[in-house]
Amino acid sequence: MPLPLPPALVPPPTDLSLFRAALSHSEFALPHSYSSAHRVVRVERKSCVLATPDGPRTVPTTIGVAVGDWALLDDAGQVSGIQPRSTEIRRLGVGGRAVEQVLAANLDIVAVCAPLERDARLGRVERLLALAWASGAQPLLVATKIDLCRPEDVGPALSQFGAAAPGVDVVPVTVTDLTSLDPVRAMIAPDRTLVAIGASGAGKSTLINGLVGGMELATGAVRESDGKGRHTTAWRELVELPGGGYLIDTPGLRAVGLSDAAEGVDAAYADITDLAAQCRFSDCGHESEPGCAVRAAIERGEIDAGRLERHRKLQRELAFQARRFDARARSEERKRWAKLSRNSNPARP
Q1: Are 272 and 308 in contact (CB under 8 A)?
Q2: Is the distance from CB of 34 to CB of 72 less than 8 angstroms?
Q3: 7 pLDDT exceeds 60?
Q4: What integer pLDDT is reported at residue 242 of this predicted model?
Q5: How far is 157 from 145, CA to CA, in rounded Å?
Q6: Least confident of 31-45, 180-194, 330-344
Q7: What span, in angstroms and rounded, lies between the C-alpha atoms of 72 and 40?
Q8: Cα 74 to Cα 84: distance, rounded to the nearest angstrom
Q9: How far apart are CA 173 and CA 147, in angstroms?
Q10: How far is CA 316 from the centre of its chain?
């Protein structure tokens, strides 16, 4: 039996605004062939929940769908296909397998949530921003839990976040002052879709509770020993915001594997990428080569040396994953040809 929908997905009997809006949304104006498309608001093991004019509907599916997809139904009431995605946020499957997992689709904004701390884990923040840039949507860095940060540490911590997110708006928020959420509300309204991502305990559910207003998503404590939180969101779900727009909550990301995200990494490290183009040698390794613009910027204090090392780490990871995917593709191709060969030359009795 499917789990009941959370309150924000179950409209009052006389209010079907979420579901009608999902079908008539101007940004997702559908051609005639997609006239029966419905927005996916939750994905379960072998089924998904769709927004329909008559309310939420749970339907079986045998194809890969993601929250935010526009799904098509066949005559049997099963999902038969999806509309081409405008954007999608992807990561490597859990366990580092050479397969990709789509976390959400058809997004306008990817909000990376990270608690504001004096010594924040900038490597994780930069990795999530690379994931956000690679999605094709607009990245946003939300600095959460500023009420837990010592007042004298707020300024330096925000400066660290700003240096780790060139070209990205950094919005500090706290649930003790709901007006701090106004910049985020302005970006979503009236009818855009935002997905919130971050580690467990990063403040995503608390942020979403503040945006939704009156809806209480589960929130959990953070362990003092390692700063990690419990998984307070069990599945990805799309909810409607009171002022318009849609929001996708996601479970905490313990691992964020990147693949096919070279452009996202370049954008996340745009300061280094731009400087590298000014180096004397096109293959500069930014070590001791003469005329290295990146090393010169580090010596001037414009870029932190640790940021360059984190950039190199992600580049090595992308190169490794590219080799893995190539090897997997070659293996699958060999299996396909072996099967074709067996079928075309059946054994004689």
Answers
A1: yes
A2: yes
A3: no
A4: 82
A5: 12
A6: 330-344
A7: 10
A8: 17
A9: 9
A10: 22
Domain with 34, as residue range(s), is: 7-82
- Which residue, among 68, 43, 69, 70, has the nearest Cα to 58 in the 3D structure? 43
Residue type for position 131: L
Residue with tokens 């749970």: 58
Spatial distance between the Cα atoms of 222 and 71, rounded to a whole number of angstroms:
37
Section 240-249 average pLDDT: 86
Supply the DSSP symbol for 127: H
Length of the chain: 349
Q: Are residues 211 and 232 in the same domain?
A: yes
Q: How far apart are CA 133 and CA 200, in angstroms?
A: 21
Please tell me whether residues 109 and 238 are part of one structural domain: yes
Residue 150 is encoded by which pair of tokens? 């010592």
337's tokens: 């040809």
Instruction: State the CATH number of the domain containing residue 306.
Output: 1.10.40.50
**173 with 142: CB under 8 angstroms?**
yes
Pure H helices in the chain = 17-24, 122-135, 151-164, 182-188, 204-212, 262-268, 270-276, 293-299, 305-344
In a domain, 254, yes or no: no
Q: Which of 23, 92, 27, 102 is nearest to 66 (CA)?
A: 102
Number of independent structural domains in the chain:
3
Q: Per-residue DSSP letters for 218-278?
A: ----B-TTT--B-----S-EEEE-TTS-EEEE----S-----S-HHHHHHHTHHHHHHHTT
Per-residue pLDDT tens digits for 119-139: 888 999 999 999 999 999 999
- Domain-ending residue, one of 249, 274, 305: 249
Q: Is the pLDDT assigned to residue 21 strictly greater than 50?
A: no
The tokens of 51 are what? 């927004």
